[in-house]
Amino acid sequence: MTSTDQPFLSVRDLQVRFSTEDGIVKAVDGLTFDLAKGKTLGIVGESGSGKSVTNLTILGLHDPHRTTIDGEILLDGKELLSASEKELERLRGRKMAMIFQDALAALSPYHTVGTQIGETYRKHTGASKKEARTRAIEMLRRVGIPQPDMRVDDYPHQFSGGMRQRAMIAMALVCDPELLIADEPTTALDVTVQAQIMDLLKDLQQEFGTAIIFITHDLGVIADIADDVLVMYGGRCVERGTKNEVLRTPQHPYTLGLLSSMPSLGGPVDAPLTPIPGSPPSLLNPPSGCRFHPRCAFAEQVPDAVCSTKRPMLNVAEGRGSACHLPTEQRKEFFADFAESGTD
Ligand code: SF4
């Protein structure tokens, strides 16, 4: 059992690089965070920010021949980066599991939903086929599939998109994993089903005390589900804090940009949205200094072109901090307009 002062998951200075035909991609550069049991960490960022690579690395699902990893990942005190494939295989499913964005791709079309959930259970517990089927029905019921004792024999294509997503959650949770990584699990679903899936995850977390990493580009989803938030840009963490800290008083211009580009709940429906100009950086050849500088509206406020030459380090005290060269007072002044317009 994890003591309260020891995080269940601890990631320290994680660096992930992989080789491609075009060169080395620096996908994650110096990421550090902790996650306690029963808590949800939201990792937010645009595509290519390193959030999915981080989580595939935690699960040990990266390609070992192409990937170089440095740093430390401790799961309940166990170092994962030095674990053998066999150990990782044992941990995946039993101790940690992942829900992907695309349930259709994650589920095999050739086997019934019940068989796939049951086989995962059998593999990790040694249960009999009969016990596994009973467990599959129980899991389908728990994730809200109607008539689970009938639907257990359906193939994935016989399920609706929302039901497939639930089936995948059932498969991920069948062994009661203590860490669940959800990678944009509701992006492809309509808002009603999205809300149901989020409620389901919250209920399951309450029931089992699961630690959840929720990866998304959507700050609205973060507002709904996360306890703490980590904002990633160009493979680095640029801001972290509690959900309220990050969403109400952002410290980093990129976070401010994300918030300004989404509609505000309670704000006027015709309020203008301000998208962040430009596109995410290439991690093959990332910008020097602050990786956000080519897109940052405040870069010129920092003298001597420091933003384009010197990397801003993440300055964190008690879990709250950001990586930006702008002095705090100046930043507060620049961000004041945003604070006045309100975020909730
Ligand atoms: Fe913008 Fe400079 Fe801060 Fe980077 S370090 S976010 S470029 S002000």
Task: Summarize the structure in words.
- The chain has helices at 51-59, 85-94, 103-106, 113-125, 129-142, 148-151, 161-173, 191-208, 219-225, 243-248, 253-260, 306-309, 328-341, and strands at 9-20, 23-35, 40-44, 67-75, 78-79, 96-99, 179-183, 211-216, 228-233, 236-242, 315-317, 320-322.
- By secondary structure, it is an alpha/beta fold.
- The protein has a domain at 252-341.
- It is globular.
- The two termini are 38 Å apart.
- The mean pLDDT is 89.
- Residues 252-253, 290, 292-293, 296, 298-299, 302, 307, 312, 324-326 line the site of iron/sulfur cluster (SF4).
Task: Write out key terms for the chains shown.
single chain; about 350 residues; alpha/beta; eight-stranded mixed sheet; 12 strands; about 20% strand; binds iron/sulfur cluster
